[in-house]
Amino acid sequence: xxxxxxxxxxxxxxxxxxxxxxxxxxxxxxxxxxxxxxxxxxxxxxxxxxxxxxxxxxxxxxxxxxxxxxxxxxxxxxxxxxxxxxxxxxxxxxxxxxxxxxxxxxxxxxxxxxxxxxxxxxxxxxxxxxxxxxxxxxxxxxxxxxxxxxxxxxxxxxxxxxxxxxxxxxxxxxxxxxxxxxxxxxxxxxxxxxxxxxxxxxxxxxxxxxxxxxxxxxxxxxxxxxxxxxxxxxxxxxxxxxxxxxxxxxxxx
Length: 253
Prior knowledge:
Elements: H1 2-24, E1 27-29, H2 34-38, E2 43-50, H3 56-67, E3 74-81, H4 90-95, E4 105-110, E5 117-118, H5 127-138, H6 149-160, H7 163-177, H8 185-201, H9 204-217, H10 223-240
Parallel strand pairs: 1-3, 2-3
Antiparallel strand pairs: 2-4, 4-5
Helix pairs in contact: 3-5, 6-7, 6-10, 7-8, 8-10, 9-10
């Protein structure tokens, strides 16, 4: 009877783990499937971690995986490493500098690049920082807090255009501001202001403004002011993606 109960519990536990993994939106990879799968995508964000991860960092990664489920060119995946038994995936993890002493490690594999890019979690291991990291390094669209997708598209068009065309896009942006929800009105004014300043001072403005805002954020500020500047920084990134000429830039930005 005891053995029967243990068997049932083992099946139940395995089911819970499978459901949790499936619900996370990320894909489990191992040493056999790793390269076959990631080579199919423009970019792959991979977390190397213990076999059964938990905690705030894992929750942040799961949140990012869910948020990016509709981004077809981005794979979000996990490699679970065991330090017992057959030590599954241990050698694969070591190949990319991941060990039980530094789990979890997140690396971004971009098609055409020989080496993956390490996610620097010194600013925090959050879904927002992961999202920002992917956007900055690939150009793939992942919405950031405070950003408006329709206006992000216009920001991207603006940075690609010549001066005369920029004026047309600014007008298009002003028209769009009259139609966006009230909750996005404040953010909308920031998009418009950045375009106006860029027309006046040149494309270099977005880079200089980005540096200025980062400097302000490094000082002592109220939480409300930090949030306000954080949103401005996120919106500025929408203007900089193409300017940085990252390796993957989508036509539908």
